């Protein structure tokens, strides 16, 4: 149950309602989707299993509401977003408690996620006011054969209904990173929250409800992605899909219709460590980058590629820090908490056992209790091991020893994933040349990969995504250009 009475409306007995047409509703399906607490592995929450008919209705009202919203002055849209941001921050604690219970996010990080989301919404409102107020004015006589008799006015208009599908690991932040740009640009939004994270998502949506957005402009349809996902993504009423998640995104991009797609998918971010690197700095970044939220971050460091000559020294430093990580309950703000599900824990274990059979060195004893996996550094990993290439999404990190920088770059570029990467060296020239050679969306120099600050461009190449995100790019992506051409009389026309 929610701990704040402000949220009483969103629950019916013990099942959370879904949100459509400005109201909290019980699904006609009579069915619910269980949400299992990753730490206790007990039933934590129940959400409505929405029907296809309910999806149709939400999309119809989203379409109608969008037409009116697009006419609301930009400054008023921004004002409403600022209000939602303030409410989100006001209710950071009850929302963070849901994150702790349904995705096992450490308590402090859960609060940080909600506050960051409020900041993202406000920044988006301000950025939208600036960039959407600008258009372009062109005259025709620059193109060969033309006279100066055509004047073109170009401006940005909304796409229509944006379908937003975030993943479990940042169910609030990665929802608002889609909702806020969509709304400021004059679109409406249908949100399909991840099942693990749905209750946090519903609480977040309630802040938009309390902020007084028009009925139908935002809706939140709950249900398993495997059951209603295809119906939503292939629906003719959807004009844009903004998705963050794993391989599901690749499948969606093959099935979706002719609508703009924003895809933020998996990563296998490499950390390349050169001989001259500050190993203390590298070790600290490997801990933060590889083990925060138990490695369940798209931009987590997922493979360390270290020059053989400094590998022993680096591994020793990292091992000392890994051994100090606090393992336990998210409520106690532990560094390492349960991974999101049993299937995820089993998948991670599969990667670890494959590496063991093929001769990797375990720097700690492998230990797992239920969904809780103790942090593990695997040294002497070789390219024939699955963990060299696959995304564990857990607190296990492979180290591959390399004999040349080219070997590291080659490994990085041979991956299907290409989200971010990082390089540690004191030589800025080398860093820039390596950055240039790494075929990833972003390269961080002397720091672990990370998303943000949220207005920075953020993108994955190859199987890591389509398009570029970040506040400014998302606003632009959720608009299209509309032009009006003023045709003046021919130049021979006399004005006198
Ligand atoms: P996921 O399994 O792909 O799920 C993502 C979302 O898709 C969930 O809301 C899920 O709903 C929904 N879904 C499932 N099947 C669907 C279908 N057929 N049609 C439409 N939607 C469907 O990913 P996850 O396990 O939640 O998240 C982890 C992955 O996300 C990792 O690979 C990580 O790297 C990636 N990620 C990427 C970024 C980035 O910015 N590049 C950021 C964060 C995470 P249900 O929960 O109901 O199944």
TrEMBL record:
Q: InterPro entries, per this entry? A: Ald_DH/histidinol_DH, Ald_DH_C, Ald_DH_CS_CYS, Ald_DH_CS_GLU, Ald_DH_N, Aldehyde_DH_dom, ALDH-related_metabolic_enz
Superkingdom = Eukaryota
Q: What is the residue range of the signal peptide feature?
A: none
Matching CDD domains:
ALDH_F11_NP-GAPDH (cd07082)
What EC identifiers does the entry list?
Answer: 1.2.1.9
Q: Does the keyword Ion transport apply?
A: no
Active-site residues, record numbering mapped to chain: 264
- Name the GO cellular-component terms: cytoplasm
- Cellular location(s): Cytoplasm
Q: Give one GO molecular function term.
A: lactaldehyde dehydrogenase (NAD+) activity
According to the entry, every stretch annotated as the Aldehyde dehydrogenase domain falls at 26-483
The reaction(s) catalysed by this protein are: D-glyceraldehyde 3-phosphate + NADP(+) + H2O = (2R)-3-phosphoglycerate + NADPH + 2 H(+)
User: Which keywords fit this entry according to its UniProt record?
Assistant: Cytoplasm, NADP, Oxidoreductase
Query: One Pfam family name from the record?
Result: Aldedh
The similarity comment for this entry is:
Belongs to the aldehyde dehydrogenase family.
- UniProt cross-references to PANTHER family, sorted A to Z: ALDEHYDE DEHYDROGENASE (PTHR42991:SF1)
Protein's UniProt name: NADP-dependent glyceraldehyde-3-phosphate dehydrogenase
């Amino acid at each position: 149950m929610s701990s704040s009475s402000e949220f009483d409306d969103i629950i019916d007995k013990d099942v959370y309602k879904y949100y459509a047409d400005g109201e909290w509703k019980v699904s006609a399906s009579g069915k619910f989707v269980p949400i299992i607490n990753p730490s206790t592995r007990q039933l934590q929450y129940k959400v409505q299993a929405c029907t296809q008919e309910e999806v149709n209705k939400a999309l119809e009202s989203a379409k109608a509401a969008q037409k009116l919203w697009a006419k609301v002055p930009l400054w008023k849209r921004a004002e409403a977003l600022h209000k939602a941001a303030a409410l989100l921050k006001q209710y950071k604690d009850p929302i963070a408690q849901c994150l702790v219970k349904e995705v096992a996010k450490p308590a402090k990080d859960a609060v940080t996620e909600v506050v960051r989301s409020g900041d993202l919404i406000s920044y988006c409102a301000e950025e939208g006011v600036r960039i959407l107020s600008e258009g372009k004015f062109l005259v025709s006589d620059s193109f060969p054969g033309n006279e100066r008799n055509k004047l073109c006015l170009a401006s940005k208009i909304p796409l229509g209904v944006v379908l937003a599908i975030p993943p479990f690991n940042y169910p609030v932040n990665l929802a608002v990173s889609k909702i806020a740009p969509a709304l400021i640009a004059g679109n409406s939004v249908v949100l399909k929250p991840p099942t693990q994270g749905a209750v946090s998502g519903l609480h977040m949506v309630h802040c938009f409800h309390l902020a007084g957005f028009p009925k139908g402009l935002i809706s939140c349809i709950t249900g398993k992605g495997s059951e209603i996902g295809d119906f939503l993504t292939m629906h003719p009423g959807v004009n844009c899909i903004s998705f963050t998640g794993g391989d599901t995104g690749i499948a969606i991009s093959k099935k979706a219709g002719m609508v703009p797609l924003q895809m933020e998918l998996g990563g296998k971010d490499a950390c390349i460590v050169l001989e001259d690197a500050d190993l203390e700095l590298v070790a600290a970044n490997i801990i933060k980058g590889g083990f925060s939220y138990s490695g369940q971050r798209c931009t987590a460091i997922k493979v360390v590629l270290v020059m053989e000559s400094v590998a022993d020294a680096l591994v020793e430093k990292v091992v000392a820090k890994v051994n100090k990580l606090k393992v336990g309950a998210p409520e106690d703000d532990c560094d390492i908490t349960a991974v999101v599900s049993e299937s995820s824990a089993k998948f991670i274990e599969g990667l670890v056992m494959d590496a063991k059979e093929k001769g990797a060195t375990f720097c700690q004893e492998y230990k797992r209790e239920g969904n809780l996996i103790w942090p593990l550094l695997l040294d002497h990993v070789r390219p024939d091991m699955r963990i060299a290439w696959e995304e564990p999404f857990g607190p296990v990190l492979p180290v591959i020893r390399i004999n040349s920088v080219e070997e590291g770059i080659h490994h990085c570029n041979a991956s299907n994933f290409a989200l971010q990467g990082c390089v540690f060296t004191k030589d800025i020239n080398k860093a820039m040349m390596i950055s240039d050679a790494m075929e990833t969306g972003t390269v961080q120099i002397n720091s672990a990969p990370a998303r943000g600050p949220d207005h920075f461009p953020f993108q994955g190449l190859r199987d890591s995504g389509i398009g570029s995100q970040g506040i400014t790019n998302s606003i632009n992506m959720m608009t299209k250009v509309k032009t009006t051409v003023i045709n003046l009389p021919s130049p021979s026309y006399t004005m006198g």
